[in-house]
Amino acid sequence: MKEQLQLDSVSVLARDPFLDSPIDATWNIGDKAVIYGPSRTGRTSLLLAIGGFLKPARGTVALQDSYTCWAPTPWDVGVGPIAGLAPLFPTLTLEEHLSVQARSHWVRHPRRRVEFSLHQWGLFPYRKRRVKDVDRHLQLRAGIALATLHQPRIVLLDEPETGLTDDQWDILREQLNQERKRQPFLLCMTSLRRESVNRADHVIHTGHRKENGTWAPG
How far apart are the C-alpha atoms of 161 and 140, rounded to whole Å? Predict the structure, then answer.
């Protein structure tokens, strides 16, 4: 049996059940899942609940294999930048960021792993630059490098396409696909793009607009 992530009747919006319906899903590690929907329908909250960083209002999230199941831990999950919640530190260099991540997650051979990751995500020429001195494209690449550095089972990205050109995102998306094949992880991301939905293995629709302008479960 492949390692899997299981969502059992998960809901994240306790205050307004009109905007939230329980979610049941089972995803293989190595798949790609997209949470798609408008603002204020719990997309980022659900993303964080999947990673074990936010307790669902109802239901459970668990990893499982042939022998056991367990709640996701920080060693199981890598998180890309989330504005206002999990930002990159603006005054650290890209290399310093990765070095801190490697040591905080007890990565074996941290210097070697950091150098590999800098090359892997196209950051090596910019490794001595501070986060605040590089553009959105490089900041996102740094965030993905951080999220994947300790080889987690799950990688969470919150609207990663935002601020990128179509070409930039196409290249980065293909790199993520190749990395999932090399070192399998479940890529779970929120998105506002229909194209991302069409390319996903699994999709959760958090809402759609009715004719009267209100939001309802998808």
Answer: 9
pLDDT digits (tens, 9 = 90+) for 31-87: 999 999 877 778 899 999 999 999 998 999 999 999 999 999 989 999 998 876 667
The domain covering 1-76+153-218 belongs, at the CATH homologous superfamily level, to P-loop containing nucleotide triphosphate hydrolases (3.40.50.300)
Nearest residue to 179 (alpha-carbon basis) of 129, 209, 145:
145
Nearest to 140 by CA among 125, 122, 115, 116: 122
d(CA 200, CA 127): 32
- Stated pTM of the model: 0.90
Portions of the chain given CATH number 3.40.50.300: 1-76+153-218
